[in-house]
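Worked example 3 (structure in, sequence out).
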């Protein structure tokens, strides 16, 4: 696999090595050192000091994950995952969100339960490029293994920075959704790499774990199409759990299918663009800092990331529309969103999916309907992680009527900006055109969400902490919130065996139990 140098906007103008990844027939077996999985393992094994701003962002994302996990702690998928984990007690395991921190569980099951809690509300961080992802999904499995292994805070920071680095660069270089492969196929390798970095494993062991993790985490995108179910929340937790098990097998000396990317019967040849395809994946060279986490961004609103800026725009336009219509939404003739190919085809009318207009659709489906999201944001002037999805809210007659008047179309300028590699140009918004029954119209554009690093109100440490307080208030005492924040803000100083302090305990009475399953 050849390599060339690609400059990246990183500290000091340092570069990334861009690797050409393509299928190699068995007769031309690719050397192990030239395989993408080995390159990933090499990055994970390279113990480069973590820059201060990266450390700060790792802490922000741990806070962010805890916030959204506590907000979802009694939602049905989270209850089910927690109940499954409760059957796997372990004296030297990991904590479960909401539970007494003295109770420990097998790390793969703690990762499962905590991963579902983090993902359920679709409210944590995102990275979008050739594909899309929620890099914060790396944190629950890495945290669980760190607690189980007695790792210290500094090792955890390095591991999370490593996992983000691998996932962001895979997402930048390899498109999965075009071939209807779910984006968690990039998560398995990144978690395996992060755990390898955490445990200071040799490159050979990490390589086998990355191969195995990718092999077992490829699945179809049907989890995000049609009748979207709670599996959307379970999918990344499942990938994290499988990655932990892959690392365990590799540590025991077991191998994995290889080359998993480049083999003639492997992922690229049969699941992605085929035997003649060629991808470019950029990774840090030796002793290069891992800074990709700084290219990711979190959510102010609990909805698909491409809707974040559009929610902000709808809230901004609401008073203007109310003034023009006198509060009568029937005076809106129709609304057109001109946006990127991705937004139009995945969460817009370009999907051709009637479920996106169904008032009885699941929360997960409504979360992937920009038409519904715009209708509610325009009418309510806000977006709430619970109230905006309630069945009675979705079925309100004036909302349904407005919802049906909203359509999307691709605008090349927005598609181009969506795929731009220039942070100043990259955008996830669009232009909203509102036509009224009197023949007048209103149009305005937005490029990035207010909370985006280049937005009107970028998220900083203060906003992450406020998000945690807002989402945890109903479930966590003030004293426990303060204790958790004091702990995570001092993460680098935590010694081995102290990472269970990063758990957040809920008021015992609020933790619900579900129906029994196979194991009780």
């Amino acid at each position: 696999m050849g390599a060339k140098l690609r400059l990246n906007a990183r500290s000091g103008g340092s570069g990334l090595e861009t690797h050409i990844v393509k299928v190699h027939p068995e007769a031309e077996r690719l050397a192990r050192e030239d395989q993408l999985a080995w390159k990933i393992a090499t990055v994970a094994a390279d113990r480069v000091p973590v820059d201060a701003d990266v450390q700060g962002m790792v802490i922000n994302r741990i806070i962010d994950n805890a916030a959204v996990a506590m907000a979802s702690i009694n939602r049905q998928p989270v209850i089910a995952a927690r109940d499954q984990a409760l059957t796997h007690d372990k004296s030297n395991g990991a904590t479960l969100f909401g539970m007494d921190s003295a109770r420990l569980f097998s790390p793969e099951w703690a990762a499962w339960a905590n991963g579902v809690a983090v993902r359920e509300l679709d409210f944590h961080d995102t990275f979008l490029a050739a594909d899309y992802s929620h890099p914060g999904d790396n944190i629950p499995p890495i945290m669980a293994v760190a607690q189980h292994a007695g790792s210290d805070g500094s090792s955890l920071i390095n591991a999370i920075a490593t996992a983000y680095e691998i996932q962001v660069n895979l997402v930048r270089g390899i498109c999965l959704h075009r071939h209807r492969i779910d984006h968690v196929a990039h998560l398995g390798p990144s978690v395996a790499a992060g755990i390898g970095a955490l445990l200071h494993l040799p490159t050979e062991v990490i390589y086998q774990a990355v191969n195995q993790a990718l092999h077992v985490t490829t699945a179809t995108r049907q989890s995000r199409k049609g009748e979207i179910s709670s599996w959307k929340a379970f999918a990344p937790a499942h990938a994290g759990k499988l990655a932990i098990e892959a690392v365990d097998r590799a540590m025991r000396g077991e191998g994995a299918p290889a080359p998993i990317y480049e083999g003639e019967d492997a992922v690229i040849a049969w699941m992605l663009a085929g035997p003649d395809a060629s991808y470019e994946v950029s990774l840090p060279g030796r002793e290069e800092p891992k800074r990709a986490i700084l290219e990711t961004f979190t959510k102010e609103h609990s909805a698909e990331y491409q809707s974040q800026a559009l929610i902000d725009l709808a809230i901004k336009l609401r008073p203007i529309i109310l003034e023009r219509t006198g509060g009568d939404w029937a005076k809106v003739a129709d609304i057109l969103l001109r946006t990127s190919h991705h937004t139009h085809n995945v969460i817009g009318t370009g999907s051709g999916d009637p479920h996106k207009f169904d008032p009885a659709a699941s929360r997960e489906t409504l979360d992937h309907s920009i038409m519904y999201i715009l209708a509610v944001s325009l009418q309510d002037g806000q977006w709430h992680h619970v109230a905006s999805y309630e069945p009675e809210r979705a079925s309100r007659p004036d909302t349904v009527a407005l919802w049906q008047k909203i359509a999307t179309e691709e605008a090349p300028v927005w598609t181009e900006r969506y795929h731009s590699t220039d942070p100043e140009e990259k955008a996830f918004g669009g232009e909203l055109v509102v036509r009224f029954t009197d023949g007048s119209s209103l149009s305005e554009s937005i490029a990035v969400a207010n909370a985006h690093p280049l937005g009107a109100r970028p998220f900083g440490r203060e906003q992450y902490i406020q998000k945690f307080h807002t989402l945890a208030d109903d479930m966590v005492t003030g004293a426990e919130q303060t204790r958790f924040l004091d702990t995570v803000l001092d993460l680098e100083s935590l010694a081995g065996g102290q990472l269970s302090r990063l758990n957040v305990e809920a008021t015992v009475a609020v933790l619900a139990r579900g129906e029994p399953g196979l194991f009780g």
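Notes: The chain has a mean pLDDT of 94. The domain at 3-295 is CATH 1.10.4100.10 (2-methylcitrate dehydratase PrpD).
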